[in-house]
Design brief:
three-stranded parallel sheet; about 250 residues; 2-enoyl-CoA Hydratase, Chain A, domain 1; alpha/beta
């Protein structure tokens, strides 16, 4: 398994959407765009009652955005487009009328924490520690911040945003409300996710759709808000501080 992909499998009303990139599931713009579109299409598919969102590989759910693309940003517009990648995925998840179950098998960093936070119900293994590392390179978790704050609260979000060097373990994330359950193994997680999705398929789709609207009430401005946040990050990535920091990673 070496080529990046986004793929969907639909069976018995369950859409399983899986993404993968060999660089620890750090996602370039084309994969993020395809992921956003796949989520949107699943939401519009009458055959689908519930969505499972997962990534390929065993160790990392998502390491954030592609560092290779980040290093090559040389103007504000390119930066805005780059940081809009995760914004578009989060907004696709927010607008999707179906419940999205997150299956988090391993470590999650930056934009990946935003994706996990944008799921409607998130389940993880004990290996699924989380980190917001953006401050380390001179920017901040501006785009994912609203989604993370919605799940962890302002205190939890600010804690991991400021402490950008530290991973916070899955139990901490569960206590803060990001994960509903934490399992000992990926096998136990997969069994629980599948059973939960199958159970949701027994519910009234219209009721679930109306519930999702209620859960996401107050986020109607996120198209504009996340675009503004992407522009902030796109500007900061051009700062002397960030450029000097990124040189160390080349």
């Amino acid at each position: 398994m070496s080529d990046p992909y986004v793929k969907e499998h639909i069976e018995n009303g369950i859409s399983t959407i899986e993404f993968f990139h060999p660089a620890h599931n750090s996602l370039p713009g084309d994969i993020l765009a395809k992921l956003a579109q796949t989520i949107t299409d699943a939401g519009n598919n009458d055959e689908v009652k519930v969505i499972i969102l997962k990534s390929g590989g065993d160790r990392t759910f998502c390491a954030g955005a592609s560092f290779k693309e980040l290093i090559n940003i040389n103007d504000a517009e390119t930066g805005r487009v780059f940081f809009s990648g995760f914004a578009n995925v989060i907004n696709a998840m927010r607008k999707c009328p179906k419940f999205i179950i997150g299956r988090i098998q391993g470590k999650t960093v930056g934009g990946g924490v935003g994706v996990a936070s944008a799921t409607d119900y998130c389940m993880a293994t004990k290996y699924a520690s989380i980190k917001l590392s953006e401050l380390n390179v001179g920017i901040g978790p501006f785009v994912v911040g609203p989604a993370v704050e919605r799940k962890l609260g302002l205190t939890g979000m600010s804690q991991i945003a400021i402490d950008a060097n530290s991973f916070y373990d899955a139990e901490w994330a569960r206590q803060k409300g990001l994960f509903a359950q934490v399992y000992e193994s990926t096998e136990a997680l997969d069994e629980a996710v599948q059973a939960f999705a199958e159970n949701l398929c027994n519910y009234n789709p219209e009721a679930m759709r109306e519930m999702k609207k209620i859960f996401w009430k107050g986020t109607e401005d996120w198209d504009d808000l996340l675009a503004e946040r992407a522009a902030i990050s796109g500007r900061l990535v051009l700062s002397d501080f960030t450029k000097e920091t990124l040189k160390r990673f080349k």
